[in-house]
Amino acid sequence: MVSKVGRPIPGRVGRSALSGDGSGGRPGARHGVVVALVAALTVALVLIGGVASAPFADTVHLGETAIAIPGVARTPPMGWNSWNAYGCSVDEHTVEQAADAMVASGMREAGYRYVVVDDCWFALQRAASGALQPDPTRFPHGIAALAAYVHARGLKFGIYESPNSRTCAQISGTYPGSTGSSGHEPLDARTFASWGVDYLKYDWCSPDSNIDRQVSAFTRMRDALRATGRPIVYSINPNSRVPGAPPGGIYDWSGIGTLWRTTNDLLPGWALHQGPAGDQGVSEILSSTVASAKRAGAGHWADPDMLEVGVPGVLGTSYPGLTEAEQRTQFGMWALLAAPLIAGNALPYMNETTWRLLTDPAIIAVDQDPLAAPVTVVPGTDEKVWRRTLSDGSVAVALWNNDDSTATISIPLARLDLPAAEGFTARNLWSGAHATVRTAVGAQVAAHDTVLLRISPTPVT
């Protein structure tokens, strides 16, 4: 369990998530890289060096209006995933701690529900029956018992797999074995359902990114999940560092996945400058994700990757971590995009700044707004002004400063497509300050920061 100011509550927390690896509290990195920067570079070479076996061929019809899995995710899912903080060192005690912390910190009451175990949870071999089985040392009580532990706390349980023969960590050589779901989809879906799984993260992890093969693979597991009759959120990632734009950002995957990743991996940095096929920072994700976010709606959500809020970077690398302003931008802009809010920090050890940001009710209300209207960038603002209509008729407006110095950002109200009214009230969602406005809104915005406003017609008195 955890106190709201980041001090572990005695009696529950065991080994520190911040000890023993010299990584500043981040014992995991993308694709199963645990500690060493050298390993991270090796993985990048392995995956960036892959070439798709065939060019993209959009011969399948995507963008269907059907929902992938009925009855789930009417609003963007909120939860926690083990990867950013723990990587391949995840174990059942860590996951139990995260579930306890989600309750004790008030995150559950704020709307967070899913506790998701990412890559590296499985034994190196399937059982004689062909079924997946957990690593017996790190998950000695089994996945069903872990799911029951999570469910007993009013939360939902998630797990990870890949549609190919190997997962991301196995492809990189970070984790041994070959236990992907390829050829085992019906059996794996039944196994997950029998364990009480509520959320499946299904990660492509292959340099072979022909769109027809991807659609076929993701559809097979979707159909297998449907056949179980259990309402399981189906989170897919079709991106695999191929040259050019990620397939998750090109095509509309609604009807195939409950949520689909629109970008390559986000790491804790502002701008990583690795190009569209490499890891990305927050500003790069935002500059590329507006078009795909327009395809989102109730039951199908565009996913720009997990939150890096409260996730330390690694000094001396290209992943330096996010400043408070940059974390505010990620959380606020993800909410404006109606993106899934999947925390990645070590929950039992978060400080008060991280806790206040992740549980901010005004920002979460924007993310969870039931109208699910698309976000748009106001033309002619150099991507500095974004807006989205909310269900009560108000409009959420972001003043985003992607520059490296403080900037004044303003916009006439006439350009925000507001409802007709004699006046408006603009509320700063970070500070709660509000003012009556009639002609324009604006603010001085620090470098890499975002001012998030909610503009409503002023009631007639």
TrEMBL record:
Pfam families: Melibiase_2, Melibiase_C. Residues 384-455 form the Alpha galactosidase C-terminal domain. Keywords: Disulfide bond, Glycosidase, Hydrolase, Membrane, Signal, Transmembrane, Transmembrane helix. SUPFAM superfamilies: (Trans)glycosidases, Glycosyl hydrolase domain. Its EC number is 3.2.1.22. The chain crosses the membrane at residues 33-52. GO terms for molecular function: hydrolase activity, acting on glycosyl bonds. Gene3D superfamilies: Aldolase class I, Golgi alpha-mannosidase II. InterPro entries: Aldolase_TIM, GH, Glyco_hydro_27, Glyco_hydro_b, Melibiase_C. Residues 1-26 are annotated as: Disordered. It comes from the Bacteria. It is an enzyme of class 3 (hydrolase). It catalyses: Hydrolysis of terminal, non-reducing alpha-D-galactose residues in alpha-D-galactosides, including galactose oligosaccharides, galactomannans and galactolipids. PANTHER family: ALPHA-GALACTOSIDASE MEL1, ALPHA-GALACTOSIDASE/ALPHA-N-ACETYLGALACTOSAMINIDASE. Belongs to the glycosyl hydrolase 27 family. This is Alpha-galactosidase. It comes from Nocardia jiangxiensis.
